[in-house]
Write a structure and sequence with these properties.
It contains 7 helices and no strands. It is mostly helical and 168 residues long.
Length: 168
């Protein structure tokens, strides 16, 4: 078995376990819910199979839905993020994405930051709009998206640099 597959499987399990045990129990002020489990989708190899990304993203979201009893909103949001991921890469990195020289867990640059930020916003906005599903609470959707995005962004950057492999 390829070491990349093992590494991605381990990342899938660890991020999901951390989300279920730690981050699902956080609800700050009724608006802030961190969802760093989406790092699996963001850190999936650039040259990886897009169908395996879509399938694993669906399974990631479906598992979250089973633990949260949320009726498919996480699976849908994860699929939306996985589908738009190549376009976000192209927007953030330009030509270096096409030559597959992108590594998200390198030092934080404006391109990497914009990729993480746009990915988190897309996931959170689609998640909260599907969760609430009425335009009567539009400002609640926007507020929850902004606050949760900020908290998830900070957590995601911390987690990326905690799991970053040492280079010697």
């Amino acid at each position: 078995m390829n070491s990349t597959v093992i590494y991605n499987t381990l990342r899938f399990v660890l991020l999901l376990a951390a989300q279920i045990t730690i981050f699902n129990n956080m609800n700050l002020f009724g608006y802030v819910n961190p969802f760093p489990y989406i790092l699996f989708i963001m850190l999936f190899p650039v040259n990886g199979n897009k169908y395996s990304l879509l399938l694993s993203s669906f399974l990631l979201g479906l598992t979250m839905d089973m633990f949260l009893n949320s009726g498919g909103v996480h699976a849908t949001s994860c699929l939306i993020l996985a589908y738009f991921r190549p376009y976000i890469f192209k927007f953030s990195f330009g030509l270096s994405y096409e030559y597959q020289t992108v590594k998200i867990n390198d030092s934080l640059s404006p391109e990497r930051f914009s990729f993480i930020l746009i990915s988190v916003i897309i996931h959170h906005f689609s998640l909260f709009i599907l969760e609430i599903f009425t335009f009567e609470y539009f400002f609640t959707i926007i507020t929850r998206t902004i606050l949760s995005t900020l908290f998830t962004l900070i957590l995601s950057i911390i987690i990326i640099y905690l799991i970053k492999p040492n280079r010697r």
